[in-house]
Amino acid sequence: MKSQPQPSRSFASDNNAGAHQEIIDAIAAANVGHVIAYGDDPFTARAVKQFQKHFGKNTAVYFVFGGTGANVLGIKAVTNPYNAVICAESAHINVDECGAPEKFTGCKLLDVATPDGKVTVDRIKHFMHGVGFEHHVQPRVISISQATEMGTVYKPHEIRSLADFAHKNNMVLHMDGARIANAAVSLNLNLRAITIDAGVDVLSFGGAKNGMLYGEAVLFFDKRLAENFKYIRKQGMHLPSKMRFISTQFEALLSGDLWKRSATHSNRLARQLARELEKVPKITLTQPVESNGVYAIIPKKYISELQKKYFFYVWNEEISEVRLMTSFDTTEEDIREFVGFVKKIVR
Amino acid sequence: MKSQPQPSRSFASDNNAGAHQEIIDAIAAANVGHVIAYGDDPFTARAVKQFQKHFGKNTAVYFVFGGTGANVLGIKAVTNPYNAVICAESAHINVDECGAPEKFTGCKLLDVATPDGKVTVDRIKHFMHGVGFEHHVQPRVISISQATEMGTVYKPHEIRSLADFAHKNNMVLHMDGARIANAAVSLNLNLRAITIDAGVDVLSFGGAKNGMLYGEAVLFFDKRLAENFKYIRKQGMHLPSKMRFISTQFEALLSGDLWKRSATHSNRLARQLARELEKVPKITLTQPVESNGVYAIIPKKYISELQKKYFFYVWNEEISEVRLMTSFDTTEEDIREFVGFVKKIVR
Amino acid sequence: MKSQPQPSRSFASDNNAGAHQEIIDAIAAANVGHVIAYGDDPFTARAVKQFQKHFGKNTAVYFVFGGTGANVLGIKAVTNPYNAVICAESAHINVDECGAPEKFTGCKLLDVATPDGKVTVDRIKHFMHGVGFEHHVQPRVISISQATEMGTVYKPHEIRSLADFAHKNNMVLHMDGARIANAAVSLNLNLRAITIDAGVDVLSFGGAKNGMLYGEAVLFFDKRLAENFKYIRKQGMHLPSKMRFISTQFEALLSGDLWKRSATHSNRLARQLARELEKVPKITLTQPVESNGVYAIIPKKYISELQKKYFFYVWNEEISEVRLMTSFDTTEEDIREFVGFVKKIVR
Amino acid sequence: MKSQPQPSRSFASDNNAGAHQEIIDAIAAANVGHVIAYGDDPFTARAVKQFQKHFGKNTAVYFVFGGTGANVLGIKAVTNPYNAVICAESAHINVDECGAPEKFTGCKLLDVATPDGKVTVDRIKHFMHGVGFEHHVQPRVISISQATEMGTVYKPHEIRSLADFAHKNNMVLHMDGARIANAAVSLNLNLRAITIDAGVDVLSFGGAKNGMLYGEAVLFFDKRLAENFKYIRKQGMHLPSKMRFISTQFEALLSGDLWKRSATHSNRLARQLARELEKVPKITLTQPVESNGVYAIIPKKYISELQKKYFFYVWNEEISEVRLMTSFDTTEEDIREFVGFVKKIVR
């Protein structure tokens, strides 16, 4: 008798997936001849144009290797080390980047507890008390994640309200858009509507979690904020030499509807997964499913059983909450199998 | 009559080339199903094994996105901010990383002028005068490039002599091996002979300049030096999420002889290019051609003419010295065309 | 009629006071001849001996210019940048050092809300969940203030319990002792009992707030932790050249009972101030008065009236809480005058 | 017979001296009542006014604890971490601050060998080659020491020429004025003439080496450069709480002619020491004596004999060069005794 085969797709994270085949094809197609390294090449020029088509001609676009680099360097561009960055307690920059923001920018992160991963003006306005007083760090950035780390999605007016507050206080609004495609699709809006049009100043535009191999983009909607960014990127160890291989992926993602197709698919399958899990007794969803993440409380004793077959992360050990993510390549069969297994374990 | 076509391959840098087809194939082959992100996957396990086959079982192996990251984070692992890193004036860490070593490690770089890019004990021993005196930075690393930025190659006994000096002084020997394959091939030695066997402690193993898309490895030959490296890599913004796509490239490079084939080829073509240029009057080679770089003085007035058709870097403006690099995909036809054009310009 | 004279002593902070006359005398007495700079002098040797008399012979003692330097450099000595420092939300390192700890150490501060300024094991143990997981900062220091920023004082068993938790988890216990004299006097204990004997590893020993002009000491109770501190202090810009003038102050403070006399006095007057304020209707004390600080809620409309004559800080704007500090030179007359004025304003 | 008494004044450094009695008196006089901490006090207001009397009303003046802090924080105020600071190889920031400039500013120091400690345009202009090229650090500061670490003094037109070069290249001119009083006196000029009037932008004004206990000033001659300096000073751990005790020293130094008297005296005695040493066979002066330092080659075998009685520093071990410094309290008798001893050793 054969042992149970390892399932080929888990729900651990959208970065456990590989790359979309169209991305692989783009890389193969870009592998022709020599081009100047470090971004002065036609692939990069075309990819930048795609970004500007989506976000406007005045958008400054820079590619980096990964998401932590995109967040940290984007924030560095608009801060001094005595500044503070306000964010949600659950923000990736706050809990999942091993202190990279503090190390590289020197800034303190001021985090606020949020039930749903969303920063609001009410939750942060007390941070303004020490402005101008040199003993205290000076708030300069509000950083939000779209979609949030809890799978929820900011509506445009929620972003606008934070942007207005930021600008009134001489701050900038940064968005960690590792899953921005999922957010846009969720709201049935284009990418502008939830970024530049809602007042965002700096955006980390995610590639890897939407089907790329590697590569993220840092976008500045006011070019003056990007004035020194080329130096920050290089000193920040995120200037790719063979840039064309990131650029061509972004071109493939953005020139057609690949970004939207993949996000629509993973969002849909997350909702489907949520619907099925809701039916299982003893399992409680903890967040509305607005993007490609499902958060649920599963009693501790079942979790270890489930993890024998499926790798996934316990999100909050205190309350036994797990996180399940879908990706561009999750199938309905994957969900049926997983939910079947859950039902077998949790009776 | 058609206009002269733009040559598809330049001599500007080995990172102006694309990727070797076998590398592309490996990526496509690795794009199957889900694996755990951040390196806990079978591709990475296999790639690490390949490195250990070349360098010994006790080698600690970590993959990062790029070369500046590899150098800086490897050095960070063995230093405190009050330490100094001794290197050649021409070292990549000294002149081509926009101060990333200083920014991330806090260390000062102590550089020495060298005619050939090579550090020697004689050139650096005066840096030992302030040891133990808290007003001075404390030397902790000697960093050498193999091959050097001048295209020369350290012989094993030269490395050994630096290693012995380092270890006697409680320092470690770091090697920037962005072009280590070219160096090994040049000496007709295996990779061990010019690294661990010659006393090197930390190695940046280059991928991009030998036909990969992206990805470098940091190797520690004493695992204790790597104790905290996983945190340094993550905080250093160089932990790739979809790690498998770097790992599979290294597997392709190292499991067979791809690393050696490509380096042999580019070295051979560099020698050929040098031989042809030497014949051109008014052009003087400035360095022995021991790897894939050719350094030559070309009178200023010709340089701008040449650059109208060929992109390459002026290495030393004071003496009108240029650098020409070959890569795995340079052809004999490329050289004939280029030399022909040079002859036409320089009469 | 003469206008009301400006009171010469406020309750704003113990650093609004000048220096104790015995301190001034010590400085004048030390101003004789030449001695080697940077600490290799007999004054420093004698001051170190005084510290070792109080704290034990194996204590490593280093003098620095000020309190923020003492805290930050002491923490730097025991951390790597990917570490985290756990502290109270109200900690000086967290809110009053303009992000100096993050900037210089690279570490993230993990703060916990506390009603009384005290860290407890229960409040912090959830920070241990991510240990060993490279995406998260690694807790390495628990930092407590003795006395706390709320004027409360840790009992030895409370410190011991934190020390045990720290050591069990491979962490160190740091104490910000800007007001350690006040704490020792409050508990009627010697300095050892609330530091080394209770498990503290690194101590910032405060001078300025107990009657010195400037100067703080960083004490390591395990000398191995201090191995590199001389370099950290110099690179941290806190190696005083004319060290003798700090050392002689510490000798004056510690060789007799000056440290104790001054702290006893300021504690006593704080209790007296508290007793008087308690009697004023509409004023509510918010913390037990265990050292030289008094915390009280005073309705907003009275605060601005009071501040016309007396400078002091609003501690918590949300709840209209003020902080009042006594110092070694506060007099009973000062308190009578202040309370009289308060009563006039608040009826 | 009594053994020879240890000489009470050495020639090791001007910071081996104590403080001038007028400085001690000023401190004692300032020790009255309470004033607001951190600089918002009348002593500081008066001291700032004294500086503005010397340097002009638009000078922004900030006090810090010490010289390394003054240099590093002043440079931080005008740089980004990807910038470079050009200086002499012998500069204090380059060799005597244990890498503090690199650690705190992130910048690389580009140093040039100089026979006399002086930077000139010719020696540094090659650093401009990589401007705008992101792989290279971007020069932003020229830092010079006045007097230099070799005891020489820049003439106003030498400073002006560096200032013009700096400003033409979008750089600022920083002056380490640890011994600026000695330089001004040497040139028989006022303080303006060799700073603001010669084009200097940022100045570290030294106190300790001219008779203060501690305390230095950072001066910005264009207030816009100081915009964020209050935060930088605090985050840089150099905001003294009892600021008045630094301020009152500066007031004593600058309100009358104390700064000039002391510097005139130490300069004069240095010349006298030089004249006497010149007469000793086998001793060769290596620099013109333009301030309070004397540099001389003394054969190695004599140095250790001399150091048995006199503590001083070997400046350059390669050529057996020593440095001897005079200070405000050096006496002619000190010089006679020392030279007598030298003659006894060196025959």
Would you kindly provide a brief summary of this structure?
The structure is a homotetramer of 347-residue chains. The first copy, chain A, has 347 residues and is α/β, with parallel strands linked by helices.
| Rg of chain A, Å, rounded | 20 Å
Helix content of chain A: 25-40%
Question: What about the largest sheet of chain A?
Answer: 7 strands, mixed
In spatial order, strands of the major sheet of chain A run 1-7-6-5-4-2-3
**Strand proportion of chain A:** 15-25%
Shape of chain A: globular
How are the SSEs ordered, and which strands pair?
4 copies of one chain form a homotetramer.
Chain A: H1 21-30, H2 42-55, E1 60-64, H3 67-77, E2 83-88, H4 92-95, H5 100-105, E3 108-112, H6 121-124, E4 138-145, H7 156-168, E5 172-177, H8 180-187, E6 202-205, E7 216-220, H9 229-235, H10 244-255, H11 258-278, E8 284-285, E9 293-297, H12 300-309, E10 313-316, E11 321-325, H13 332-345
Parallel strand pairs in A: 2-3, 2-4, 4-5, 5-6
Antiparallel strand pairs in A: 1-7, 6-7, 8-9, 9-11, 10-11
Helix pairs in contact in A: 1-10, 2-10, 8-11, 11-13
